[in-house]
Amino acid sequence: MRKASRKTKLKRAGKALTPKQKKELKELAAMSDDEIDTSDIPELPPGAWKDAVRGRFYRPLKQAVSMRLDADVIAWLKKQGKGYQTRANSILRQRMLDELRRA
Q1: Is position 18 within any domain?
Q2: I want to staple 35 with a disulfide (CB 3.0 to 4.6 A). Which of 31, 40, 50, 87 is the partner?
């Protein structure tokens, strides 16, 4: 994946930042977190996160691959209806996450 250049990072909605905006961003980046006034955006109470769903809008990049799988495995995946490739990906992702948690 290509790394974004600094010039690309300093754009908003396709428009280049003004010199004033660049200066403000530079000053903000130089401040410690304690120096930044966040009084207009107070923290949410812990209860606000009780129904939060992690990864709901996460869409990982897909990569086309060719795999040779046992015929009975494919039949089992297809037997459950449309979307067998998505199910296979979900099964593999769950296994991957389980292994990562154990590591």
Answers
A1: yes
A2: 31
Mean pLDDT of the chain: 85
Give the C-alpha separation, 52 to 4, whole Å: 31
Residue 41 inside a domain? The answer is no
Which run of H or E residues covers position 99?
Answer: helix 84-102
- 74 inside domain: no
Convert the pLDDT of each residue in 7-46 to its tens digit. Answer: 545 555 668 889 999 999 999 899 998 888 888 988 888 8
What is the tally of structural domains in the chain?
1
Please check whether residue 30 lies inside any domain of the structure.
Answer: yes
Instruction: End-to-end CA distance of the chain: give it in Å, rounded.
Output: 26
Residue with tokens 């410690």: 32
